[in-house]
């Protein structure tokens, strides 16, 4: 506790016995006064004394600033102090004064005052002002802690908002996971047919809390062909998932017409332009004929599939096709690729190869190298190895993979039948 009572004495006065003033004492006192005033300004605090018997009140200059009071009006007497205290804090002031009178130890409390209509937070430390005959009043330190309490309230409010945001994000993620699981199962397994094996994989981003709009479709068509598709709707979160669901369900319905892939892309482009405002999407749509092994496909702004044949991985030549939702009236071309026994076809969205930390061509080269080692007879496990070989899931973006393997001559798939079963 700083002995602020001593500050009321003349600073040039030295109380040590046998000591006499010397020529430098006046300068020392002035320097000490300057330093004391500077310390009070830095701490936004001042000292005060209330003499009970004489009724005298003494304030340091900083207390006048704290109360917003003109020094010409003099300090506020102790009985009048309550007039300046916020009504809700009157009990705190009463308890402080009673404790200060009855205790020989310093006591402290916080209360608010009104200064020119503004609430200010004060911390007041009081202790008895002692004389040889006993206490003659109170003296203490008054500090304006408005800035500190305001910062604490802001921090508390920020923590509250952050907690609410985290709870809301967790709830939204739970809803997104449930919605996406209903639309696109996390572990879809494989589609095993007499002439091919299909494996699909949805790979969520490793770090981001918002799911993306990547999707796939692998299902037998009414005419006996196999509909194969992947796509990626722009954005993240519930809007992207909702748009993904609309686009995917629309494809399933349109595919029932038996129209070729490039016609389906034209219709989906119209859907995005007119129904999914301010949205774009990429897609690859194809039909695989299980008898002829001809894959007829088109694309809309998506990277071309990778074909692995005889241990060599390369991208297919890409037919013309613009991003879904980018422009109206632009044609989509149809390409055909005849798959041979032992071939592996890999379709994927850009989240598989893109990273902020590397060029897309580097990611594509990694996928090409890893695709060569995907075994045709264990396609599901092969996709897991491929993901590990390219560095794992993308930290910032989702990805979808769809792989088609054509058994080599004399080889049969592990499970036959046009049903979705675990690999």
From TrEMBL:
Keywords noted in UniProt: Hydrolase
The keyword Hydrolase belongs to this UniProt entry's keyword annotation: yes
PPM-type phosphatase domain segment(s): 193-406
Hydrolase keyword on record: yes
InterPro entries from the UniProt entry: Bact_Sigma-Reg, PAS, PAS-like_dom_sf, PPM-type-like_dom_sf, PPM-type_phosphatase-like_dom
Domain of life: Bacteria
Region called Disordered, residue ranges: 1-26
NCBIfam families: sensory_box (TIGR00229)
Name of the protein described by the UniProt record: Serine phosphatase RsbU (Regulator of sigma subunit)
């Amino acid at each position: 506790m700083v002995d602020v009572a001593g500050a009321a004495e003349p600073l040039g006065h030295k109380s040590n016995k046998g000591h006499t003033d010397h020529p430098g004492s006046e300068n020392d006192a002035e320097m000490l006064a300057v330093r004391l005033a500077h310390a009070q300004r830095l701490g936004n605090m001042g000292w005060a004394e209330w003499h009970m018997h004489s009724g005298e009140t003494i304030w340091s200059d900083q207390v006048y600033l704290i109360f917003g009071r003109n020094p010409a009006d003099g300090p506020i007497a102790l009985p009048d102090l309550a007039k300046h205290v916020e009504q809700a804090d009157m009990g705190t002031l009463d308890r402080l004064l009673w404790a200060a009178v009855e205790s020989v130890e310093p006591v402290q409390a916080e209360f608010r005052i009104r200064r020119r209509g503004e609430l200010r937070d004060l911390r007041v430390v009081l202790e008895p002002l002692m004389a040889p005959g006993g206490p003659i009043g109170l003296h203490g330190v008054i500090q304006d802690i408005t800035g500190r309490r305001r910062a604490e309230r802001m921090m508390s409010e920020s923590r509250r908002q952050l907690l609410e945001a985290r709870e809301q994000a967790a709830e939204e993620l739970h809803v997104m996971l449930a919605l996406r699981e209903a639309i696109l199962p996390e572990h879809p397994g494989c589609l095993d047919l007499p002439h091919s094996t299909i494996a699909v994989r949805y790979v969520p981003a490793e770090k981001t809390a918002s799911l993306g709009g990547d999707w796939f479709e692998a299902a037998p068509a009414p005419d006996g062909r196999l509909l194969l598709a992947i796509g990626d709707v722009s954005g993240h979160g519930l809007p992207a998932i909702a748009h993904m669901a609309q686009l995917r369900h629309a494809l399933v319905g349109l595919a029932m017409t038996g129209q070729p892939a490039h016609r389906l892309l034209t219709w989906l482009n119209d859907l995005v332009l007119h129904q999914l405002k301010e949205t774009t999407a990429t897609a690859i749509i194809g039909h695989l004929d299980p008898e002829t092994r001809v894959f007829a496909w088109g694309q809309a702004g998506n990277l071309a599939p990778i074909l692995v044949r005889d241990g060599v991985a390369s991208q297919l030549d890409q037919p013309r096709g613009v991003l879904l939702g980018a422009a109206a009236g632009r044609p989509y071309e149809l390409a055909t690729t005849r798959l041979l026994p032992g071939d592996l076809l890999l379709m994927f969205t850009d989240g598989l190869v893109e990273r902020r930390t590397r060029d897309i061509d580097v990611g594509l080269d990694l996928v090409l190298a890893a695709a060569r080692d995907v075994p045709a007879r264990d396609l599901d496990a092969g996709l897991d190895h491929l993901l590990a070989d390219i560095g794992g899931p993308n930290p910032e973006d989702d990805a979808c993979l769809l792989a088609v393997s054509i058994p080599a001559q004399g080889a049969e798939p592990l499970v036959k039948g046009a049903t979705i079963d675990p690999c």
